[in-house]
Amino acid sequence: MDFLKRSIRNKLIVFLCLATIVPMVTFIMITYHNVKNNVQNTSVQQNSNLIFQGRTNIENYMNILNQISLSVYNDPIYYSAGTQTLYKIIINGPIESENANEIYRSMLFLNRSVKEIYQTRLYIAKGDQTYLMMEGLGKVADGDKLSTTVSTSRPTVDPPHISHQNGTGSYPYFDPGIVMTFHRPLFELPSDKLVGSLSLDVRMNVINQICEQLYDKQHEQLYVLDEKGTVIYSPLPEQIGTVLSEAWVQHVQGVTDGKGSFAWNQDHFSGLHVYEKITTPYMNWTLVKRIPYDFLYQDARHLTQINVLLGIVFLIVIIAATLTISIKITSPIKKLIASIRKVEPGNLDVVIDVSSQDETGQLAKRFNQMMQMINDLIVREYRLELANKTYQIKALQAQINPHFMYNTLQLIGTLALQHDAPKIYTLITSLGRMMRYSMNTHETIVPLAREIDHVKAYLGLQKQRFDEQLDVVYTLDERYDSILVPKMTLQPIVENYFKHGFLQNDSRIEISSTPGVEGFLLIRIADNGKGMDPARLNSIQQTLDKCTGEMEVVESQESIGLLNVVSRLKFHFGPEAYLLLESPAAGGLIVNLHIPLPKEEIR
Fold first, then answer.
1. Any idea what the Cα angle at residue 57 is, between residues 52 and 63, rounded to 5°?
2. Pairing assessment for the beta strands 470-476 and 507-515 based on DSSP bridges
């Protein structure tokens, strides 16, 4: 690491390279991660919506088949009482030859109600006969020729299989195909007596068309499975009708949620599964869409590759620029170091000669100015020492003068009592207390009660001056008497009233201390004087609001201004303290001091 310690050029090169490479790599990684997550979330949402639409279409189609199978129970009211309907024939059994015509007519109607119905099989228990209708041709055979067991309690759906004639013989134009079979047991209503069964062999065209619209055949896979894992639909035709025993099939059958998604990384597949279950009284199917990560994150990878290529190009440009800048910056700095070394022995009159106008030239210029300021400060230090001595003498005099004033006022008060003038003695006493309070420089923070006493003494003098023309009202909460406030906070505000707002007749001033907003003490000084025009009040309020507590104390020969009061409040209580001016409609002025209370004082 010595090459970094000894050369600012090397530091610049390393730092600029790190400052470029680290954020760039971090940005690429974060972008890829966020895009990847967004792509996955968006894909899950979009595919869930797509699978839901597919589920709805399949369920609607199967409901149509279910309704067709229920049409056996229809017994139109316009038939006469003696007319034999299919439902009556199933209950009573095929007795006459006309019954066969009615059976074939009804089965032909069922067979043609949906074009995907390949053939229709009807078994009538009373008479033990099986009827088969395919392509308008009917067959009949004795016994139940169905090769599978039909549920005697509810409709069922057999998974896809090769069609057959159920033992009724062969047809001249029999063309076997892949069909699923919808079975419905038939009962003698309203009892639960089983009187037969109806089976509809349905081609897979509609199911296949619905499923093919739900996925990308080149990259994705879509499966429709029944509760046993038998494949209803698969992108691989050889899997249709077979039972899948793969681990992901067992997993999706084991979940209890009706829909959802899960990640999978087994059986040579790494990707996302989105599923939705179709649950009806006659089937329990599950739609599963398998999306490989390679296809899912394809756009995210392309974006990352573009970012990496751009990053490499930018990196080459930045490294070249870094080398150039480092050389140009360090060359003037070396000259600057050589000049500074001349100052080390104590030669403060050295002038650094760097002619460049960039930051290095500005640094040399500032350094020369600093050396000049150091020379000036050395001279000023002697002057400051002399001024300090003078200040100490004046401070000593300031300590002597108040004692002289107190003694003089006490003498005047004694003479007033000797000459039977108690009112003069009272005024002299109030003035003495005021002078002692204001000239005591050792206390800058006092309890609120002492500040109020000082104001009372001041208003006592003004009361003697204006007699009945001045009315003073105090509304003070004694709970806050011990709150510490900056000295000379209230008296300057009261004094401003007599300077700028006092009216000769019926003047009134009110001073109150009450709980303010939560956690604050409100000290209000209200008068009925001349008041202030809105423009002037807004201007002063804006100036007070800008006060931060760090500005210099603003004073005049007559009083301490409002800005000084706000400054000392914020300095002591923090930026939470503030002063608010109000101009009542009836005239006068209200000054509100909002002072934050200590936690132990908050009620």
1. 120
2. parallel
Quick one: which of 326, 368, 366 has its CA closest to 343? 368
Amino acid sitting at position 125: A
The H helix count followed by the E strand count for the chain is: 14, 18
d(CA 17, CA 521) in angstroms, rounded, equals 57
Burial 308-325, CB ≥16 within 10 A → b, else e: eeebeeeeeebeeebeee
The sheet carrying 156-162 orders its strands as 137-142, 129-134, 117-124, 193-203, 178-188, 156-162
Higher pLDDT, 126 or 403: 126
Q: Please give the order of strands across the beta sheet that includes 259-266.
A: 231-233, 221-225, 283-292, 269-280, 259-266
pLDDT at site 173 = 57
Q: What is the pLDDT of residues 89-142, one digit of tens each?
A: 888 877 666 677 888 888 888 888 888 998 899 888 888 888 888 877 777 776
Residue 21's contacts (CB-CB under 8 Å, 6 or more residues apart) are: 315
The yes-or-no verdict on residue 67 having pLDDT over 80 is yes
Mean pLDDT of 471-483: 91
Which pLDDT value is given to residue 585? 85
Q: In whole angstroms, what is the distance from residue 163 CA to residue 133 CA?
A: 13
Residue 386 predicted with pLDDT over 80: no
- The DSSP letter of residue 497 is I
User: Taking a C-beta distance cutoff of 8 angstroms, is the pair 588, 531 a contact?
Assistant: yes
Residue 80, SS3 per DSSP: coil
Strand ranges (E), 425-506: 445-447, 470-476, 484-486
Res. 79: pLDDT tops 50: no
Q: Are 366 and 360 in contact (CB under 8 A)?
A: no
Give the containing element (helix H, strand E) for 393. Answer: helix 359-418
Q: What mean pLDDT, rounded, does the chain reach?
A: 80
Residues 466, 459 contacting (CB under 8 angstroms):
no
The arithmetic mean of pLDDT across residues 569-596, rounded, is 89
Q: How many CA atoms lie within 13 A of 123 on its CB side?
A: 26
DSSP letter for each residue of 138-178: EEEEES---SSPPPSSS-EEEEEEE---TTS---TT----E
> E-strand spans in 322-458?
445-447
Beta strands in 189-268 (DSSP E): 193-203, 221-225, 231-233, 259-266
Amino acid letter, 445: I
Q: 47 — alpha (psi -120 to 50), left (phi > 0) or beta?
A: alpha
Dihedral, 351, 355, 356, 361 alpha carbons, nearest 10: 10
Bridge partners (DSSP) of residue 176 are none
Q: Where are the beta strands (DSSP E) in 313-403?
A: none
Question: First vs last Cα of the chain: how many Å apart?
Answer: 62
Mention every residue, 6+ apart, whose C-beta is less than 8 A from residue 406: 432, 435, 436
DSSP letter at 500 equals: I
Given a contact cutoff of 8 angstroms between Cβ atoms, the answer to whether 226 and 243 are in contact is no
Pairing assessment for the beta strands 193-203 and 269-280 based on DSSP bridges: unpaired
Query: What's CA 581's distance to the chain center, in Å?
Result: 39
Residue 361 has pLDDT above 90, yes or no: no
| DSSP 8-state assignment for residue 548 | -
